[in-house]
Each structure stands twice: as C-alpha cells, then as structure tokens.
C-alpha cells in the first residue's frame, strides 16, 4: 500500500479500550498517510488517544479494525515477532521518560539497536552518533549519572544509530526545561534533515509542533489537519 | 552478528551491571543449595568411609569372609593383589581342661596382625584394669575371657589343656573386636596362636570349624574382592554384623539428608521470591528491547543466557563454599575418628550438580517466562504486563519439589513426609497469617509511627500475607534446624540413656532363679527383668519339612541353626506389633507365636502360618498370630520368636537378664560369678561406648550442616523483604514528599517490621512444633514433646531478624531524594 514516497498508511483504524466495565472508542475509522521525510506533529487533549495512535503506527499494538502499513510492511497482518522485525533497523523511538536501560552505559544503550539490526560495527557507530549529539566524553556514564537533557540526547543517539526510516517521538520534550528542550528539538530536526527520516511526534508543545511540516489534531477519535 | 551471539553478549553485559541486591536471592539461593549438597555429599563420602572403618571394630575388619572349609591360599593371594590386609581366624567349640575341671569353650585361633580394625583389650585378672594387647597370644600362651577364667577357677600362669596343647594362661580378654552375636556363642571364649592349631590335633574330621578370613582396605578393593568370592563363602560387612550400629548410622544419614533438603527447599523459596522480583524488574527491559526491534527469540535467548550464567556462577560459588564447608566439617569432626577421615569422593558432588536445574526451572521459570512475554506497548503504558501463569507456576514448582525430594532422599517415606509436611505447613502458615492480619485490626493504634506502620501492613493485604508466608517459611526453617533439631537429637540420644544396660547375664538355670533374685536384690537390683529361653530347631513350616524348602544359601544356614525361643505374657516396650494382635494376659498355654519382622521376611512368613519346632527332643507346633518390630538398640533381652507362657517346655530353659552396672561396682561381677559359676557375663560397655560416640559424631555433623540451611533461611528473609522494596520505596518517597520526617518513617517501619516478624515467627513456631512432632513420630522414632518456648522464640527471632533485614534493605531510602525514587518507579 505504501509507495516509495509514503512510509505510513493507516486505513479506517478503530481502537477501543475497556474502561470501568464498558468500552471507550479512542480511535474511530481513522485514516492517515505520511510521506517519506515528512515531519508530522499530532496534537490533542490529554486522553484523546495520541499515544494510542503512535503505538499502533509503530506496531507496538494492534487496532480493533482497519489496516496499517509501515515502510511497506502491513503491520496488521504480522505477529509480534514480525512487527518487531519490521521495526528493527527502520524505526527509532524517543520517549518522554527517556526509557534508557539503567544498568547499561550510554554507549551500550546506543549500541543495542545496532546489534539487534545485525550491525558488525555497533560500537563504532554508537560512539560516533554519541559524539554527534555532544556526548563523546560521556560514553561510559550510566543514565543516572547524566542530566535529563543528556539522557534524552542518549535516547536520540539510540534512535539514530541505525538511521531509521521513521522516528516516533512521544512528548520528547515533556520532561525537559525550555532551553534543553530547544536543543533537543534542534538535534531532532537536524537528524530529520540529514538522514531524510520521517518524524511522527506526539506533543503538547506548540513550539515543537510549529517546527513540523504537518500538524494534525486528534479529536473524537479522528484526525483533523 | 547472529541473534544468539547478540543475545549472549547482551545478557553478559546486563549481568555485569545488575545491582547485586537484584541477584542476591537467586544467586545466593542456588549457591547455598549447591554448597550444602556439595559439602554434605563430599563430607558424607568421607564420614561414610571413616564410620565404616571405625565400625570395623565390630568385626575386627572391614569385611569378614566365612566358610566351612579352610581358607585357601588363592584367596590370600587375591587379597594381597588387591592390597588388602588379611588375617585368618578359625573358630570352633572345644572342651578345655584345667586340672580336674573341664568346660566347653569357643576357641579362636588367630594369626599375627589380628585384629585389623578396633582394639583387643586384655587385663591381668578378671575385672582388673584393661590395657591394649598389642598383638595376639604368643605360641605357648592362651588368653581367656572372664567367664572361662571363673568357670575353671584359673590363676595367672595356670596351665590349660587344649587338645594336645598345654598353654599358659597369661591374660583375660576384656574387649575383643568381632565378639558379637552374643546369643550365638554362648560358651566362654579363649584365644591362642594359630601357628599351634595343627599341633593341637583338634581339627579332625567332623569338627565344627568356622573358617574366617578378615580383610581391611579400600572400599573399592573390598568390593572387587567381594565380587570374585565363590558362592560357598559368606561375606559380611560391619554394618551387616551389627544391627544397632546400622540403625544409628541410618538415622545419621537421614538427618544429614534432611538438612540438605531443608537447605534446598529454603533455597527454592529464596529463588522463587528473587525470580519474582527479577521478573518484575525485567518487564521494562523486555518491552524496550522488543520496541527496538528484538524478536521473542532474542529475548528468550538473552534470558536463558543470563540464567545460565547465574547458574554457572552459583555452581562455582557453591562448589567453592561446599569444598570449604566439608573441609571445616572434616576438621571439626576428624578428631573423633580414630584414623582420621579418608579423602572425599568426586561422586559426592553429583547431588549438588543436579540441584540448580530443578531449582531454576521450578521456581524461577514461570515469573521469568512471564517477563519474556511482556508486550512492547509497556514502554508507553506501564501498567501492561503479562500475568504469571498460575497453573504452570504451580505445576513447575510441584515437579521441582518432587525432583528435589527424590534427588536428595531416594526414600519414598521420607520424601512423602517432607512433601506432606511442607504442604500442610504452607496451608497452616497461610491460614494463621490471614487470621493474624485480621486480628491486627483490633490492635490499639496510639502513636503516629505505630499507626502508620499497621495501616501500611493492612493496606498491602495480599502482599503482606505473601510476605508473612515467605518470612514464616524462613523462620520455620531456622527453628527446625536449630531448636527442633536440638530437641530431636536430645530425644534420640535419650533412647540410649547413661544407665542403659551394659551387662548381659546368660545361662541361669531354673533352680538358680530364686537364689539369683535374692543375691541381686541384696545388691540393689530388686526388680531385674529375667527372660527365659530354650534352644529350638525349626522342623517344618505349614507341614513342609524345612529341608525341602527352596531357599538361598544364607537362609538355609539360618534355618539350620538353633533359634532362641522365649515366652512372655506382655509385649515389651521396645517391641511394636506390625500385623496381627499380641496376646492378652489370659492366653497361657495357647500354641501361638510372635515373630520378628526380619525373620518373617526371611522365611516369608504370614499370619496363620504353622511352624513346627524340636525343643529338647519334643515337637512343638505354634501358629503365627502376630509380627513384631523389635528395637534392637534398646539393649534389653529380645527374641526373634516369642510364645505365650505355659506352651514351651521349660525344663531345659535358661534365663537371661540385662542390667547396668556402673564402673565403680565392677567387683560385684566377681562375687556373682563366684556364686553362680555357670553364669556367662557379656560385657557390652564397649559396644555402648561405640554407639554413643557415633551418636555424638553424627549430631555434631548434622548441627554443622544445618548452618547452610540457616544461611538459606536468612536469604529467604532478605528476598522476602527485597520483594516489597520498590513499593516501600515509592511509599516512603511519597510520605517524605508530603512532609513526613525521617524519624517518623523509621518508627512506622519499626512497627510494621516488628509486627510482621513477630506474627510470622509466632506462626512458624507453631508449625515447627507440629513438624518436630511429626518428624519425631514417623522419621526418627524419637519423641518430640511439647515445646511451647518455640512460640516466643519464633516471635522474638522473627521480630529481630525482620527488623535487622529491613534496616539493611531500606537504610538508604529515607535519605534518597523523593523525586529520584518517584521518577524511577513511575507507573509501577
């Protein structure tokens, strides 16, 4: 379904969640198409389903109805392993709470996706990308020895150690002060430009949304451009 | 890089960086279980060798080969080729004379080198101070026992005629290895040099000689020798020769196995608790690596690799600890063994190496499998997690417990008791813990710390119950291996009190009974238990001539000998009826028979079977009405065959009794034998001494091995508290953020841990009492009475240990900034 120019397609997607004995429709026959290299911000009130949509587009969850394609793979037709394979080496993530493995050093955190993608030079690549985000001298530090901004930069490096076709970011600046957030946004878009990565961001931050080529509002289970 | 290699590298990296407290229970539990099993396995292999060697004193050798034809030189050569020490001993009955007096004696001709094990003690005169013989009687000399000395009215240097020989009496035998089976050899004994045997002219055709070859050496060589033995020869080990010691050793081995089992089961609890906590901690990682593109195969491979690494590390630590443990045990116990301890056997390690797999699969499998199933979506929704499959977890745990029980006990009865006990204990602990939690609601709640602590305990509900259960199990283990073990050992030793009979007096004739009773009463023994016995030859079973019975050579020899048949109206306290009914007091004259279990098994006897005997030339047919188990280690006269009074012809009876004569009163024996010259005295002080020593050794070894179980119990305690740590940390951070002072926080924990520990300890104390009773009743056959002190000991130990462990685990929390804790545990 996706063409060379389209990396994400969602078609008539429904998603319900169970809530207090009943069920609540979060997404209703939602459709979306994102072109390669495009940056898209998804806005919406708390509880509007932004993160649910992100999880479906990334193949972390399955919709109740509808179909989703990611970089040519139909996620809705794959099992969990198939969806993991579809992500490996092609998808990067940046989370609000950084999601670094506390036991591993900055370098080892960044190496992990490269190793999962089968890269033989995982260590060199990780060191290089950490240098790019300004953490060349922090390779052996553990996450708890780094500031919030530094941790998010490690997460950014992890997302880009294997240049992804798509980067999904869930409130990437939510836990950061304004100045640090601006730095991170700068680096995010720098990667977007250099590697031609498609960006799909879920955010409340109007400044971040304003930097994106497309802004979508999620309301009543549907997207509005 | 291939997926498995990447997974292994990832696992290694993770393991190196894991906080030690995450692994304490898992690694520590496995290591301790391996250590205990390895220490006991290695140590037991050494002790078994040493005890076997020491009990060799019973036979005077490690192996006794007996035949009815002279021991050929081929056997001696074979023994020598296997580097076994060997001496020959020929035993036969003969009449010996001193002047005008004659007496039937059991004559033993011994070679230089005898005894190979144990010590031959002699004295210059009957009941004088004994000293080691340091050899065998030189040619021309003879040593006799006190009974023969008295019967022939000998004096030092007296000349004894034995066949064609004239030998000079130079010593009295006080203790002789191999002189067991005192009901088989009723005649007094004498010992002379085998070099003069031919010259004695006693070995003519038809002489009833028992030719013995005594052997000593390595167990392997002895086994090889035994395998090549012709069937006409009978081989006997010290254990086979001595029923009493056999039971003692069996019980010691059971205690050791039980100590290992207790360690393994406690380790299982530690592994289960730790794996549960580890599984929870792994969920976030699993979700993240799956999000980053890892497939389930990668996750499973990484998880298995990490577990394998942990197991290998635990085995290495456990084996090192086990080797150290067995060395310490050996060092402490070795002085008690006359010849030190032999080196450990590598085969002793097998039970230890077999432990980690069932422990890991059974107790860590399910929670870690559940962790591996964590959906990737958890990176965005922290409440998502795969549930631990309850049925699978229970099935795996039960299978693992069964495997452990079988591995460690190899005994269905003991395994069944432990399993039943464990399940009943769990149910009891759970019920009691739930009841106590309910009762806590009624406790007065004065003071903020106290209130905060109790509220926390109740709010956690199921978690508190689970924790109480885990702590209760740990405390139960601790109480079992300390207090209950001590009580059982004491009860066990009490079966052989300091005043257990050390003398058997045999061969009293019916006309002497009145005088004998009067003599003994005058010397402070007014109520001696005198038992009659006659020699009876078995003729037929259920009308079939025993000569026509198809039996093995051993049973045939057994049938051919004469049995001691006794009669009594009431069952002795050291006898227990296994099937049928013992007769009542008014059964006088009934042709009934009570048979010991081992005899019933050997002759395949059942209730109702008719046995015909020849008693002093008269036929006597008796019907089996009950089968008994006899406690042979009671050191009282006991018999394989019993009839009611008034049925066995009593004319030829001789009477037997046992008594305790303290060492300072040994002179009484001289008077006794002077007044009743036909009386035979069997002094079993040396055997008693040996049994007591064995008991002491075994108890000490068990106490030391229980140290591992104790450590495992502490580990369970730590793991149980560690399991609730993340939640406590989060609560503490919240309370701190809301302005609760550190002092108040500590007071609340003091109340919570104090009550948790004391309540768990109380329940564990009650369970320990019940289990102690059950173990005493069904396993050790030693009474374990009411020990109410277990309740307060459990409660006090519980409160103290839980407080200490709680302080160790949480001491840094109140000073950790609340933000740091809340960030780290957000969403949990």
Task: Provide a descriptive summary of the structure in words.
The complex is a heterodimer of chains A (225) and B (828). With 225 residues, chain A is of the alpha/beta class. Chain A has seven helices and ten strands. Chain A has a six-stranded mixed β-sheet with strand order 6-7-8-3-9-10. A four-stranded antiparallel β-sheet of chain A has the order 2-1-4-5, covered by helices on one side. The radius of gyration of chain A is 17 Å and the shape is globular. The relative contact order of chain A is 0.19. The model of chain A has no long low-confidence stretch (mean pLDDT 87). In chain B, a hairpin with a 2-residue loop joins strand 2 and strand 3. Chain B is an alpha+beta fold. The radius of gyration of chain B is 34 Å and the shape is elongated. At the A-B interface, helix 1, helix 2, strand 6 and helix 3 of A face helix 1, helix 8 and helix 9 of B.
Q: Could you say what the CATH topology of chain A is called?
A: Rossmann fold
Write the CATH homologous superfamily of chain A.
Answer: P-loop containing nucleotide triphosphate hydrolases
- From the N-terminal CA to the C-terminal CA of chain B, the straight-line distance is 35 Å
Relative strand content of chain B: 15-25%
Mean pLDDT of chain A: 87
Helices of chain A, by number, come to 7
């Amino acid at each position: 379904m996706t063409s060379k120019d389209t990396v994400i397609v969602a078609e008539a997607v429904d998603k319900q969640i169970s809530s207090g004995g009943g069920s609540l429709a979060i997404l209703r026959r939602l459709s979306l198409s994102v072109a390669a290299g495009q940056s898209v911000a998804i806005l919406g009130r708390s509880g509007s389903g932004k993160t649910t949509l992100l999880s479906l587009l990334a193949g972390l969850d399955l919709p109740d109805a509808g179909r989703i394609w990611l970089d040519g793979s139909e996620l809705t037709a794959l099992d969990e392993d198939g969806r993991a394979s579809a992500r490996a080496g092609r998808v990067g993530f940046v989370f609000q709470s950084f999601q670094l493995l506390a036991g591993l050093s900055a370098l080892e955190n960044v190496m992990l996706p490269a190793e999962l993608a089968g890269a033989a030079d995982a260590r060199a690549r990780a060191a290089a990308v950490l240098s790019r985000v300004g953490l060349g001298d922090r390779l052996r530090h553990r996450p708890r020895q780094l500031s919030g901004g530094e941790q998010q930069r490690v997460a950014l490096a992890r997302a880009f150690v294997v240049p992804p076709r798509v980067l999904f970011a869930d409130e990437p600046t939510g836990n950061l002060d304004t100045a640090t957030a601006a730095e991170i946004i700068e680096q995010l878009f720098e990667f977007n430009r250099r590697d031609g990565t498609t960006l799909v961001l879920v955010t409340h931050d109007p400044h971040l949304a304003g930097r994106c080529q497309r802004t979508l509002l999620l309301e009543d289970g549907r997207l509005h451009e | 890089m291939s997926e498995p290699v990447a997974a292994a590298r990832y696992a290694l990296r993770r393991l190196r960086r894991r906080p030690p407290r995450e692994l304490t229970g898992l690694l520590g539990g496995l290591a301790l279980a391996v250590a205990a099993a390895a220490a006991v396995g290695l140590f037991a292999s050494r002790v078994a060798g040493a005890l076997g060697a020491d009990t060799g004193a019973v036979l005077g050798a490690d192996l006794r080969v007996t035949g009815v034809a002279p021991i050929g030189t081929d056997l001696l050569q074979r023994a020598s080729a296997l580097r076994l020490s060997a001496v020959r001993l020929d035993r036969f009955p003969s009449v010996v004379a001193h002047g005008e007096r004659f007496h039937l004696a059991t004559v033993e001709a011994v070679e230089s080198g005898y005894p190979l094990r144990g010590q031959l003690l002699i004295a210059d005169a009957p009941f004088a101070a004994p000293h080691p013989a340091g050899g065998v009687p030189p040619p021309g000399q003879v040593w006799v026992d006190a009974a023969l000395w008295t019967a022939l009215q000998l004096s030092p240097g007296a000349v004894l005629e034995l066949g064609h020989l004239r030998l000079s009496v130079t010593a009295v035998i006080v203790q002789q290895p191999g002189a067991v089976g005192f009901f088989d050899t009723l005649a007094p004994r004498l010992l002379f040099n085998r070099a003069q045997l031919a010259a004695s002219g006693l070995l003519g055709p038809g002489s009833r000689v028992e030719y013995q070859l005594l052997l000593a050496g390595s167990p392997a060589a002895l086994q090889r020798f035994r395998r090549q033995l012709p069937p006409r020869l009978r081989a006997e080990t010290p254990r086979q020769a001595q029923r009493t010691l056999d039971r003692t050793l069996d019980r010691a081995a059971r205690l050791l196995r039980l100590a290992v089992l207790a360690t393994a089961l406690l380790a299982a609890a530690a592994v289960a608790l730790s794996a549960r906590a580890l599984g929870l901690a792994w969920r976030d990682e699993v979700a993240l690596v799956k999000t980053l593109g890892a497939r389930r195969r990668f996750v499973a491979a990484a998880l298995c690799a990490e577990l394998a690494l942990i197991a290998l590390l635990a085995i290495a630590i456990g084996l090192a600890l086990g080797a150290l443990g067995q060395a310490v045990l050996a060092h402490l116990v070795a002085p008690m063994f006359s010849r030190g301890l032999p080196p450990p056997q590598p085969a002793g390690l097998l039970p230890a190496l077999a432990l980690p797999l069932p422990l890991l699969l059974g107790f860590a499998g399910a929670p870690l499998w559940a962790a591996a199933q964590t959906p990737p979506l958890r990176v965005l929704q922290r409440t998502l997690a795969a549930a631990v499959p309850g049925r699978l977890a229970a099935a795996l745990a039960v299978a693992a417990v069964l495997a452990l029980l079988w591995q460690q006990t190899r005994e269905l009865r003991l395994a069944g008791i432990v399993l039943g006990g464990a399940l009943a204990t769990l149910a009891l602990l759970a019920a009691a813990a739930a009841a106590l939690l309910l009762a806590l609601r009624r406790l007065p709640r004065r003071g903020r710390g106290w209130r905060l602590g109790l509220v926390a305990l109740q709010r956690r509900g199921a978690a508190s119950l689970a924790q109480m259960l885990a702590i209760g199990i740990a405390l139960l283990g601790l109480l079992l291996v300390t207090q209950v073990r001590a009580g059982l050992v004491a009860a066990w030793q009490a079966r052989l009190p300091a005043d257990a009979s050390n003398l058997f007096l045999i061969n009293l004739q019916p006309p002497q009974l009145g005088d004998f009773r009067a003599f003994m009463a005058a010397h402070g023994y007014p109520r001696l238990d005198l038992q009659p016995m006659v020699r009876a030859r078995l003729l037929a079973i259920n009308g079939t001539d025993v000569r026509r019975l198809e039996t093995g050579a051993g049973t045939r020899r057994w049938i051919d000998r004469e049995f001691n048949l006794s009669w009594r109206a009431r069952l002795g306290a050291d006898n227990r009826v296994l099937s049928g009914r013992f007769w009542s007091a008014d059964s006088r004259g009934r042709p009934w028979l009570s048979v010991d279990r081992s005899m019933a098994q050997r002759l395949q006897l059942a209730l109702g079977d008719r046995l015909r005997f020849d008693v002093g030339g008269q036929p006597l047919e008796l019907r089996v009405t009950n089968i008994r188990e006899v406690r042979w280690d009671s050191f009282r006269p006991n018999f394989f065959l019993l009839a009611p009074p008034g049925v066995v012809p009593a004319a030829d009876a001789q009477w037997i009794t046992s008594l305790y004569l303290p060492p300072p009163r040994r002179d009484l024996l001289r008077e006794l034998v002077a007044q009743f010259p036909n009386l035979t005295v069997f002094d079993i002080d040396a055997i008693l001494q040996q049994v007591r020593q064995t008991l002491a050794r075994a108890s000490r070894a068990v106490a030391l091995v229980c140290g591992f179980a104790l450590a495992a119990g502490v580990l369970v305690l730590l793991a149980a508290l560690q399991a609730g740590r993340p939640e406590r940390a989060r609560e503490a951070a919240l309370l701190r953020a809301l302005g609760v002072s550190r002092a108040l926080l500590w007071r609340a924990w003091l109340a919570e841990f104090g009550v948790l520990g004391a309540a768990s300890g109380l329940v564990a104390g009650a369970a320990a009492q019940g289990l102690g009773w059950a173990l005493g009743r069904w396993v050790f056959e030693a009474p374990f009475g009411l020990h109410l002190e277990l309740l307060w000991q459990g409660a006090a130990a519980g409160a103290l240990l839980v407080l200490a462990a709680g302080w160790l685990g949480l001491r840094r929390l109140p000073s950790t900034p609340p933000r740091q804790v809340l960030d780290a545990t957000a969403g949990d």
